[in-house]
Automatic annotation (TrEMBL):
Keywords: Disulfide bond, Signal. This is C-type lectin 37Da-like isoform X1. It comes from the Eukaryota. It comes from Nicrophorus vespilloides. Residues 1-21 form the signal peptide. PANTHER family: MANNOSE, PHOSPHOLIPASE, LECTIN RECEPTOR RELATED (PTHR22803). Residues 49-172 form the C-type lectin domain.
């Protein structure tokens, strides 16, 4: 076999052996998978309030639609906020994070269905909140349909923004985190 073909064959063998390499493998312990939720393993920031468990994704900033899908992949929901007390708890928790983690966070609130009629995507309920930044929601430029925790002047309150913006996000679940173990394929 000529050297070039040998090199191609070798490359193919290496690819087949390591093509899955360096992907985090979520090995969720099988027990109680129907009553617990898989939590992602890349340094999750987790807290609880009432019967909810929250996962704050501070390592990846993505648009609202992808944030919604990411939470679904974790068997969770993009956060809905049931009360101002819940908002205040989440805000205080975010304030306790490091400076680098004090990001803008997507919620599931949006008026994509009907302009000006804000609902939580996770449960379909209307958004009733007294925790808006002054003058918000303003549908600025006619382009803002998704609600997020907005960090302005060192204060977190709600704002509507363009859904295509990339932000951190918060997933929620009423299920408890499963036992998980971290493993690498190579
Ligand atoms: Ca809007
Ligand atoms: Ca706005």
């Amino acid at each position: 076999m000529i050297p070039s073909k040998l090199a191609t064959l070798f490359s193919l063998i290496v690819y087949l052996q390591y093509s899955h390499c360096c992907e985090i493998n979520l090995d969720v312990v099988e027990e109680n998978t129907d009553v617990c939720v898989k939590t992602p393993l890349n340094i999750p920031v987790i807290t609880t309030y009432g019967n909810k468990t929250y996962y704050l994704e501070v390592n990846n900033q993505i648009n609202w639609h992808n944030a919604y899908l990411a939470c679904k992949q974790y068997n969770m929901e993009l956060i809905n906020i049931d009360s101002d007390a819940e908002f205040d708890y989440i805000r205080e928790f975010i304030n306790s994070l490091t400076t680098a983690q004090k990001l803008n966070f997507w919620t599931s609130g949006n008026d994509l269905g009907t302009e000006g009629e804000y609902k939580w995507m996770s449960n379909g309920r209307r958004v009733f909140s007294n925790r808006w930044h002054k003058g918000q929601p303003d549908n600025y430029g006619g382009l803002e349909d998704c609600i997020h925790f907005w960090h302005v002047s060192n204060v977190y309150l709600l704002n509507d923004s363009t859904c295509a913006s990339n932000m951190a996000f918060i997933c929620q679940s009423i299920k408890k985190p499963c036992s998980v173990q971290r493993s690498w394929q190579c």
